[in-house]
Amino acid sequence: MKKIFLILFLSTLFFACEEDKAKDPAPELAAQVAGTYKVTELNVDGTNKPLNGAAITVLLDKFSAEVVTAKMKLKLDGVSEPDEDLGTLNLKNAGSTGIDIYEGTEKVGSVRSNKLNIFVVFDGQEIEMIADKQ
């Protein structure tokens, strides 16, 4: 009788441990947000500005598990402007609200459902860019 209980106990442990092996680890934050984003909306001081003749893209490249490098490309009336290096950005998981983006300790954006929001203050103006992942 003891042998039967021992076999049942060991088989339970064996199958219980095997289930954990089947679970996939969550992808790294940088892998989730890396890619090319096309800006679809530009707001300056809360006012929507038309993007007539302007094509803005933001490139996020994985640097490490929670860090990306960012670059902004701008075309005005089909003419490319020099790329703007945005430096390295830190990523933090914000749970159900997506992934927050920080430059140092200052929050400068977020990514949720393949939609990138970047907000900065430049020359006293609050600028927000909303972009979709391509």
UniProtKB/TrEMBL annotation:
PROSITE patterns named in the record: PROKAR_LIPOPROTEIN
Top-level taxon: Bacteria
Name of this chain's protein: Lipocalin-like domain-containing protein
Taxonomic source organism: Dyadobacter fanqingshengii
Lineage: Bacteria, Pseudomonadati, Bacteroidota, Cytophagia, Cytophagales
